[in-house]
## 1
Amino acid sequence: MRRVQRVKRTRRGDFELRLPEQERTILRSLPGQLRELLGGGDSSLLRLFPPAYPEDPELDTEYHRLVRDDLMGQKQAAVEIMESTIDAKRLSEEQLEAWLGSINDLRLVLGTKLEVTEESNQDIPEDHPDVQLYALYFYLGWLQEQVVEALSAG
């Protein structure tokens, strides 16, 4: 069986996106949703900004005071790149790395909302109330793997 390849490095060194329209439609809504979450204080962002010093709340607060704005700026810039290139057929390495960052952030937020653990598997019953969110979570993981493989290739 032939393996589906959604992202492929080209001979020119850029990356071809082979995303069907149905997948692009789903992906179009995600950067805006992530941007909204980044602008708020949603508890699902904890995985994006985990404690650096969990044993020392004072030191952790100081750390976040020093780096959170830079981290937030990087995450927002990645979201903007993904959003502006969602319909592109080709991406530069920098653009694809921004996609990777946004996909990772989306998975972390979604995984937090769904309370996904390392023991979680893909056998979610079809009648589960969050079956579509789980499907999106697993799809994003698969797409993330595709991006990592393309970036690692040749």
## 2
Amino acid sequence: MNEDVKKLFNEYEKLFDALDVAGQARFFADSFISAGPRGAIAQSKDEFLKMAEQAAAFYKSVGQTSAKILSIEETPISNEYSLVRAHWAATFQNTEMKLMEFDVSYVVQRMGEEPQIILFITHQDEQQAMKELGLL
């Protein structure tokens, strides 16, 4: 794995674990796309930051206690871009620490001083998974 990309995800994992959604914003390009089973949206980093506090409050309200990358794999697309697939696990207070595992794919651009995420795709329906765990 490219060392810059490895560093990005090591730091991103720590911030996601700490529910520091605003801190995660630095890893995203000024404009990026987020997608999942419910559709896709293009947004700016500023729009992301406006929603960051709401997102952190939501994860706290459902009792998220930790988040960790269990495995990660990078596939180069070109000299400037890579596809990174991360297999995550999160724990929640009300689930007796049962892991909620999920996959996210990221397209990472390596053109500036630090790599940036320009696209991420969640593979599972987060709301449905949380309902199944009794969190919603």
## 3
Amino acid sequence: MAFPALIPSARSYTPGDVPQQQQATLSGMNNAYRQGNRRINQSLTLSYNNISEAQLNEIKAHYLSVNGSFEVFYLSSEVWNGYTTPPVPLVSDYAWRYAEPPTITDGSCDLWSVEISLTTYAVNFGDLIIDAGAAASLPAREYILDAGAAAATPARDYVTNPGAAA
């Protein structure tokens, strides 16, 4: 299930950092060792204020469809509404997962407020196919977006818009 196409009322993005190890030497000098080239611990908090019950149900349904914080997903373009270039591209080597369950606050006049906390999950881009069309079944990929008529075997872990690859 795709992330709900709702424009958030507010966004809070933290760009994270590259993985590194800081070490102080016996002489008091500091050394840093970079342990990777992709940022880790990126986070995004989305606030949706005064939304309808139908919109609230979309958010809850998405959370349940990805099994809470277990499965990864990509964000809809509406999440980055207002950005010419989003800080994290919609489809990249970073997927998202829920950092914690959504916080739902009852409002007045049948309106609700929801706060969602997300964190990035690094995806090996070699395991990702975008717009597979009639892609051959080998090599096996874990992630397929817009599978089209791609072969259903071997089984994939994450398929968005499965087409014939279901």
## 4
Amino acid sequence: MADEKIRVYSVKEHGYILTERVVKSDEEWQRELTPEQYRVARGKGTEAACSGSLLHQHEAGVYQCVCCGNDLFASTGKFESGTGWPSFYEPVAPENIKTESDFGFGMVRTEVICSRCDAHLGHVFEDGPPPTGFRYCMNSVSLKFEKM
């Protein structure tokens, strides 16, 4: 439901806020996103390894959902995984993302989804660095970067 309120963490507000879920038709998403953003974020695609504009982003800031602006990952949690995609060891808050099983491509993986608009962001793996041991492997095209 479009008027459903969810609780997410806002980096700008330094705390939790209530915000509305974002629900749009495929036609609306296609008008608002580039074809590549739509293919990946709404169609559960993957950008080519080492092609993303945020792979080598090292400035201080927050990575947000390209579809709805939900804060997802802080630059302090980013690390060089060597995989070809921006990688993080934790989200800004557990409430800002959702996960679900992905059985595509003959594998079992854990998909990472924006909790506010259900955009496909990437996958999470259990081979990351301390302190969490997780590697959130994200598509640059599903994210936008806000300097802080």
